[in-house]
Amino acid sequence: MQWYDNKENNSEKEMTVKIRFFARFRELLGTDIVIDVAAATMFTHLITTIARKNPEGYAAIFDENGTFHEFVILMKNGKRIELTDAATTPVADGDEIAVFPPVAGG
Amino acid sequence: MIAIQTSDVDIGALIAAAKEHGTGAVVVFDGIVRDDEITEMELEAYEEVAVKELKKIAGEATRQFGLLHVDIIHRIGRLVVGENILIIVVSAGHRKEAYAGSRFIIEEIKKGVPIWKKELTRDGGRWVPGDHGHGKGYH
């Protein structure tokens, strides 16, 4: 997989990020996934790749065109990332990425 | 006290502590697991972010309504019917501000604090659908 390049083939420094899924997404895809990614990996690409390990998990987050469902919420280190920016927002070393459905507390 | 925790709280002790100098009214909101033919409820939070959001909401309510004291305790984990889920205790000089501040806090929590509920039934479970406001509570 592209984002999981062998270190020797990758001239750029690899980075480690953590992905946290919550609620239904967590049940389908797991959580606290720590992974090495190539530099300049974009949010959407990373989440797409991880979500593909479970078709039901993928379908919970993405539509048939591979676009985020509009209700999905993304965060980088506790701050919102707009879905429309996710394809062009690179992850950085040490980032904590959160992906979750609409909240239902209270 | 702003907290996300598994354990319950002593609401009487919170009321006593909320009676700051100048208090004329204390309003308590106690959200409870309702008997909707469920066996239990399971609650989950993105704790670090949720606590930050709760503190932000408490600060905003204090500023807007002149509250003298705010407690928000949201429980997580497995809770049975009748248990407390969310306790909000506010005090103010007068009832109007206390009621309005309490109402503001619960509505803001519903809008944007990353907490989820799953109703557990004999047949399995179902996630309570969130209000799809697209996380408008976040900044």
Question: In words, what does this structure look like?
Answer:
- The complex is a heterodimer of chains A (106) and B (139).
- With 106 residues, chain A is an alpha+beta fold.
- Chain A has a single domain (2-100), classed as Roll (Ubiquitin-like (UB roll)).
- Chain A is 22% helix and 23% strand.
- In chain A, strands 2-1-5-3-4 form a five-stranded mixed beta sheet.
- In chain A, a hairpin with a 2-residue loop joins strand 3 (73-76) and strand 4.
- Chain A is globular.
- Chain B is α+β, with helices and mostly antiparallel strands and 139 residues long.
- Helix content of chain B is 32%, strand content 35%.
- The two termini of chain B are 23 Å apart.
- Classes of the chains: A alpha+beta (106), B alpha+beta (139).
- The interface between A and B is medium-sized, with 20 and 34 residues.
Brief synopsis:
The complex is a heterodimer of chains A (106) and B (139). With 106 residues, chain A is an alpha+beta fold. Chain A has helices at 23-29, 43-51, 55-61, and strands spanning 15-21, 33-37, 73-76, 79-81, 96-100.
What is the second-level CATH architecture of chain B? Alpha-Beta Complex
Q: What is the name of the CATH topology of chain B?
A: Aldehyde Oxidoreductase, domain 3
The total beta strand count of chain A reads 5
Instruction: Note the main sheet of chain B.
Output: 4 strands, mixed
First-to-last CA distance of chain A: 41 Å
Strand order of the largest sheet of chain A: 2-1-5-3-4
Supply Rg of chain A: 13 Å
Assign the CATH superfamily of chain A: Beta-grasp domain
Shape verdict of chain A: globular
The CATH architecture term of chain A is Roll
**Number of helical segments with 4 or more residues of chain B:** 3
Helix content range of the residues of chain B, please? 25-40%
Identify low-pLDDT runs of chain B. none
Distance from first to last alpha carbon of chain B: 23 Å
For the largest beta-sheet of chain A, the strand count, sense and barrel status come to: 5 strands, mixed
